[in-house]
Design a protein that fits this description.
alpha+beta; two-stranded antiparallel ribbon; 6 helices
Amino acid sequence: MKLSDVGRRVAPLLVAAMAAAPAMGDVHSSSAYDMRMPDVRIPVITRLPDPDMSGMLPAAAQTDGLTEAWLMAQPAPEGDAEWQCLTEAIYFEARGESLEGQIAVAEVILNRVDSPLYPRTVCGVVKQRGGGGCQFSYACNGKVRMREKGAADLAGRIARAMLDGAPRLLTDGATHFHARAVRPNWSKRFARTATIGAHTFYRHPG
């Protein structure tokens, strides 16, 4: 058979095959050539807003200690009997002291509350009697009034913050203090931890 005859026989077959095949642009329209990608869900990533650092940290988060500016920016202090007892103790024992001196007295009272050697409440601590008198001298004077409003307000703010968990950073666990003008017998046996203003602070052995 001549080459030209072969060409004449093959050409119609190629044309028929090409006609039967789908066009390149129609590949996805034919079930025989369905190569669609699976349905992939792309997660939606939501960016959280940056934290608001302009607000004041709560009392328990004041790692550098309380400041008067922070205290005065808080709502007017209020609370239960425990708050009232701590407020009065700060006022009558240390209202003439610096802010640190007043906080230090609050630390002593709360350190006693935490100790198994003393009553388990603030009121129990400040009203405790022993050794022929009161642990806190003002408590022996009967009913007392806080006449200096500004000092009473600050004492109340300190008491509120300390009861709310403000850190005790000043007295290293002190459970006792006395005015620097006196030297009680127990001061010879206790570890001295700090001197702040007119008071010296001590920690009970053990």
